[in-house]
Amino acid sequence: MRLTCDFLVIGSGIAGLSFALEAAEHGEVIVVTKRAREESNTKYAQGGIAAVLDASDSFDAHVSDTMVAGAGLNHIRAVELTVKDAPARIAMLRRAGAKFDLASVGAHADESSPGPALAHAEQDLDLHLEGGHSARRIVHWGDMTGREVERALVAAVSAKKNIRVLEEHMAVDLITLAKYGGPEVCAGAYVLDVERGKVVTILGRATVLATGGAGKVYLYTTNPDVATGDGIAMAFRAGAEVANMEFYQFHPTCLYHPQVRDFLISEALRGEGAILRRLDGTPFMKEFHPHAELAPRDIVARAIDHEMKRSGAEHVLLDITHRDEAFIKEHFPGIYAQCLRVGIDITREPIPVVPAAHYLCGGITTDLDGRTAIPGLWAIGECAHTGLHGANRLASNSLLEGMVFAHRAALALANVDRSKPWPEVPEWDVGEAVPSDEAVVITQNWDELRRLMWNYVGIVRSDKRLRRAARRIALLQEEIAEYYWKYFVTRDLLELRNIATVAQLIVECATARRESRGLHFTIDHPATDSRMARDMVIKRGVAAHLGQPVAVKPSPSHEHVGRGAG
Ligand code: FAD
Ligand code: SIN
User: Of all protein residues, whose CA lies closest to atom 31 belonging to ligand 1?
Assistant: First the structure.
């Protein structure tokens, strides 16, 4: 079966849906998404969206905070344009129907009560504070911001006639015409209809990857099951450049509980005064950074990791019990309820927490409009590397990035060329494949890969551990490839193949970065080396290497032709 459209969007998180909404003004859109349409990292976002909205705050301060977190690798143009566009993106979300807490309400109203009147009231938004931010600038909906944003975007997209959303459809690989003797152009994707077990060909004038992050590459993560780095793996296989994969952000505070393994305890708790304590109750963050609990995330995560390794403890404690009970319940209704469900009353007792893989700062290299080096292929949101985050993302900058670059890509694609006839591309070829009779290979490799990434390529790395990881990943990839060609493709198999590719890219970039910077810390090269203030770039067939120096303000004429190299 073959489908065609102007814009093929892969992924239905904040990036994919906000792009689809705008692109629908210019043509027909198909959004494919591998599970239900709302399932995404976006839906689980808690803290909120960073935007300068208070008179005492400034764009310069938000730029500076982003650059400090990014440890010298941010691309200044990407940072500036993102920060300046933030208020307009928040307004866009509100127009699309998203509700945010208002300062006049002073807190998050009961989940069931707020209606459109609250959402559209002309009052100032309530702003939270998070680590690394020098001002209150986090727009939020209680501590369930992502759920509200995703709800509003799904509703807005569903109301558009020229957007078709195909749920339970998983992109398998990009269709590049060079493979069939044509020009180096991306013409769409092969997509597995999961329920029918059939692979469909979908052609688009532009193909937009919005597939999100890859937390599932690690054993412990805050990410939901969909986060398997598919877009990055597909783009890499298609020959696109990928950058800075060594910078995986570990969120310092994931709930530590045997029944709930992936529940985030928002940084906003620390913004509102929560204290990190050892199991004996002593606070420790001041020993690691003058900003204590509000130090950049990499520093807090490493401090917790250090404390756990030093003491042998399986977790540390996050304590907000000194705040007023009503305040806690109003500002953090989701966290309060979830912890209570597992027997922890956060108004009375500290929360056991551990760091967990959270956000991928690297990704597919794009220019400042989301364009990749392959004509016809675009990438936005967490799967892209735009240069915004550098070596470490500032809290609550990623929902923002997803919207800003979706908007820029939609503008750049407004006049997409519809004049050419659709190219002839072969249908998906099942070859000699048969139904699998050995699914255990998938679960075994899945567990092994995620565990080795956690143990060898985690918060603190070493040359020896990276070498071990590389050897094992190569072996697993051999087995996975054999399995891939022998059996019919399934979602599980495709996800395994993709996380193995992402693991390989992380290890190759981490091995090549022989220094410590931002999120990449290695005991063998503990200092930052100014000669390495460059992106780590990797391309199929080309080993990871340092690209252009970054953090240099380019002349404006470079904005649209470079590939985000600053
Ligand atoms: P996603 O929202 O992850 O969407 C990706 C979509 O692609 C999904 O629909 C997925 O099913 C689909 N997909 C993936 N692969 C395929 C495929 N092969 N075929 C078809 N579909 C595919 N950031 C902030 O700025 N503020 C926060 O407060 C915040 N809190 C967070 C809390 C948690 C628990 C987590 C996990 C993340 C948080 N983040 C936060 C990060 C932020 O949520 C993500 O970076 C952001 O939502 C990514 O948006 P996206 O649209 O790029 O990807
Ligand atoms: C959080 O609420 O702590 C997550 C914020 C983010 O990841 O940006």
Answer: 45
The token pair at 379 is 């990438």
For every residue of 68-100, which 3-state class applies, written as one string? HHHCCCCCHHHHHHHHHHHHHHHHHHHHCCCCC
Give the closest ligand to the alpha carbon of residue 214.
1
Tokens standing for 226?
């969909």
State the pLDDT at residue 117: 35
Reading the block at residue 335, the tokens are 């966290």
**Burial state string for 158-189 with b = 16 or more CB within 10 A and e = fewer than 16:** eeeebbebbbbbbbbbbbbbeeeeeeebbbbb
DSSP conformation letters of 503-538 = HHHHHHHHHH--S-BTTB-BTTS-S--GGG-EEEEE
Residue 108: its pLDDT value, please?
Answer: 52
DSSP-derived 3-state class of residue 406: helix
Domain ranges of the chain: 251-356, 440-532
- For the beta carbon of residue 298, count every other beta carbon within 10 angstroms: 25
Q: How many helices (H) and strands (E) does the chain have?
A: 15, 19
- Tell me how far the alpha carbon of residue 294 lies from the centroid of ligand 2, in angstroms: 13
What is the length of the chain? 566
Kindly state if the Cβ of 46 falls inside 6 Å of ligand 2: yes
Reported CATH class of domain 440-532: mainly alpha
82-141 tens-digit pLDDT: 999 999 999 999 999 999 999 865 555 544 443 333 333 325 899 999 999 999 999 999
Q: How far apart are CA 29 and CA 233, in angstroms?
A: 23
For 61-80, how does the pLDDT look when each residue is reduced to its tens digit (9 = 90+)?
A: 999 999 999 999 999 999 99
Residues with Cβ < 8 Å from 359, sequence gap 6 or more?
A: 213, 215, 248, 249, 251, 382, 393, 398
Whether ligand 2 lies within 6 angstroms of the CB of 399 is answered as: no
Burial label, 273 (beta-carbon count in 10 A; 0-12, 13-18, 19+)? middle
Strand partners, 250: 357
Question: What is the percent of the chain with per-residue pLDDT over 70, rounded to a whole number?
Answer: 94
CATH of domain 251-356: 3.90.700.10
Residues 479, 493 contacting (CB under 8 angstroms): no
- Regarding the beta carbon of 267 and ligand 2, being less than 6 Å apart is answered yes
Reported as a single tens digit per residue, the pLDDT across 195-238 is 999 999 999 999 999 999 999 999 999 999 999 999 999 999 99
Residues linked to residue 317 through DSSP beta bridges, in sequence order: 277, 352
Residues 311-355 have pLDDT tens digits of 999 999 999 999 999 999 999 999 999 999 999 999 999 999 999
Q: Are 234 and 214 in contact (CB under 8 A)?
A: no
- Among 386-390, 438-442, 529-533, which stretch is predicted with the lowest mean pLDDT? 438-442
